[in-house]
Design goal:
The chain is an alpha+beta fold and about 280 residues long. It comes from Sinocyclocheilus grahami.
C-alpha cells in the first residue's frame, strides 16, 4: 500500500512538472565552447539543435556590447544577418535555416571575441563561444650573422647564425637540435619581430631546425650548414688562392726582367722555387 502511494506521488509530481513546462519557459542551462581558427578560414558556431521549432526565437550577438548579428523568428517571418557599426561582418555571415548555426567566412583577427546565442521558445537555452583567430605564420629565415668566421682552435671553425621572423604575435620561435629544444623566445599580443641566435661548428653533422609556432600551427626551416656557413670555407679557399695569385704576379715581373737579360733558364728555376715556397707556407 505504501509503495503504491509513493509511486502515485512520483507520477503526479512528474505530470505537474510537464504541465508547468508547457505553460511557461523551462531552462536547459548555460554552456559554451572555445574555438581556435586560422585567419582566412571559416568557422561554424553550432546551436546543438537538430531542428528549429515554429515558436523558437534565435538571436546571435557579438562582443561585450552584445551587438546583434543574426536573428531567426519563424512565426514572425524573420531570418536575417546584420553587420556591426564598423562593418567587419559584411558579406561574411551565413545562417543555417534548419539548425540556426552561424558560419563566419574568410575570418580575420577582427572577428575574434565572444559570441552569444539565445534560444527562446518551449525551452530557453543560451550558449557562449569564445573564438580565437591566429594570423598565418611566415617561414623563419636563417642567415649568417657574422662577417667573419670564429675559431676556437686551429682545426675547428664556427659560424654564428640568426633565425628571424617579422610582424608576428602570439608565437614562439625556437631552435632545435634534432628533437631537443636548444632555445626559444616568445611574443604575445603586440605584433613585432623576433630573432634567435645559434652558433654551430662548420663540420657539425647534427640536424638543426628553426621552428615558429602558435597554438594551432607551425612553420619550420631546416638548417643547411654547408649553405649557411659556406663563408668559412670560402674565406679559407680565397686566402690560399690570393697567395697563389700574388706569387704568380711577382714571378711574372721577375721573368720579364730576366728575359731582358736573356736568362730564361734562371727565370724558370726561380719561378718554380718561389711558387713551391708560397704553397708550402
Amino acid at each position: 500500500m505504501i509503495h503504491t502511494f509513493v509511486l502515485f506521488c512520483l507520477c503526479f509530481w512528474r505530470l505537474i512538472g510537464n504541465l508547468i513546462c508547457e505553460q511557461s519557459v523551462c531552462s536547459s542551462g548555460v554552456f559554451g565552447e572555445s574555438v581556435s581558427v586560422m585567419e582566412g578560414d571559416s568557422v561554424t558556431l553550432h546551436t546543438n539543435v537538430t531542428q528549429i521549432h515554429e515558436d523558437d526565437d534565435i538571436l546571435w550577438t557579438f562582443g561585450a556590447e552584445n551587438s546583434p548579428i543574426a536573428k531567426i523568428n519563424r512565426a514572425a517571418g524573420i531570418f536575417n544577418t546584420s553587420d556591426v557599426p564598423d562593418g567587419r561582418f559584411r558579406d561574411r555571415l551565413k545562417l543555417d535555416d534548419q539548425t540556426g548555426s552561424l558560419t563566419i567566412t574568410d575570418i580575420t583577427t577582427q572577428h575574434a571575441g565572444l559570441y552569444k546565442l539565445q534560444i527562446r521558445g518551449a525551452i530557453l537555452s543560451s550558449q557562449t563561444s569564445n573564438v580565437s583567430v591566429y594570423a598565418r605564420l611566415p617561414v623563419p629565415v636563417i642567415s649568417n650573422s657574422s662577417s667573419k668566421c670564429s675559431s676556437s682552435s686551429s682545426s675547428q671553425q664556427n659560424c654564428s647564425l640568426l633565425c628571424s621572423v617579422v610582424n608576428v604575435s602570439h608565437v614562439t620561435l625556437s631552435w632545435y637540435k634534432g628533437n631537443s629544444l636548444l632555445s626559444s623566445i616568445s611574443v604575445s599580443d603586440l605584433s613585432s619581430s623576433l630573432s634567435l641566435p645559434l652558433e654551430v661548428e662548420y663540420q657539425d653533422k647534427n640536424s638543426y631546425s628553426c621552428v615558429l609556432n602558435n597554438p594551432i600551427s607551425n612553420q619550420t626551416t631546416h638548417l643547411n650548414i654547408t649553405q649557411h656557413c659556406h663563408t668559412c670555407a670560402v674565406l679559407i679557399s680565397a686566402a690560399a688562392g690570393s697567395l697563389l695569385i700574388v706569387a704568380a704576379v711577382v714571378m711574372c715581373c721577375i721573368c720579364r726582367k730576366h728575359r731582358k737579360t736573356h736568362q730564361e733558364g734562371k727565370c724558370y728555376l726561380q719561378l718554380l722555387i718561389s711558387t713551391t715556397t708560397k704553397i708550402t707556407l
